[in-house]
Amino acid sequence: MRRVLVDLARSRGADKRGRRAVRVTFDEAAIGGVAPEADVIRLNDALQALAAVDERKSRVVELRFFGGLTVDEIAVALQVSSKTVLRDWEFARAWLQRELHGEAARDV
Predict the structure, then answer these.
(1) Are 38 and 27 in contact (CB under 8 A)?
(2) What are the backbone dihedrals phi and psi of residue 19, each rounded to the nearest 5 degrees, phi first?
(3) Considering only 8-17, 29-38, 40-49, 80-89, which range has the smallest mean pLDDT?
(4) Taking all residues of the chain, what is their mean pLDDT, rounded to a whole number?
(5) What pTM did the predictor assign?
(6) Helix, strand or coil, per DSSP, at residue 39
(7) Alpha-carbon distance 54 to 48, whole Å?
(8) Is the pLDDT of residue 90 over 80?
(9) Is the C or the N end of the chain the one with fewer CB within 10 Å?
(10) Which of 56, 65, 66 is nearest to 87 (CA)?
């Protein structure tokens, strides 16, 4: 699902399509305070940067946000405890929020 959304956003941003990026409104509860108009491509880039820091935390976000899995389902899929998934989710949420808000501040 993540790749589909990113590919769609990139195709709509092409010159022949007027360079309009797809805006997706994220549920604040799902991503934890990231700007409601966050861009799928920026989120994808931030997730790739997070994966360089910690692959498992990136997978937790991907499975929870794009896959819609619950904490318990993610724990089974990644073969870790639910508490580990919750810690990873909290860290990743804060990290992504800093990355996305930091980019917005630098762009202004």
Answers:
(1) no
(2) 55, 35
(3) 29-38
(4) 77
(5) 0.63
(6) strand
(7) 10
(8) yes
(9) C
(10) 56
CA-closest candidate to residue 42, choices 6, 89, 90: 6
Cα–Cα dist 50/108, whole Å: 23
Q: In the structure encoding, which two tokens stand for residue 35, read together?
A: 């700007």
Which residues have C-beta within 8 Å of that of residue 16, sequence separation ≥ 6? none
Q: Which 3 state secondary structure label does DSSP give 23?
A: strand
Q: DSSP state, 24? A: -
Angle made by CA atoms 105, 6, 58, in degrees to the nearest 5: 70
What is the separation, in whole angstroms, between the first and last Cα of the chain? 30
Q: Report residue 90 as tokens.
A: 């909290």
DSSP E strands in 5-108: the ranges are none
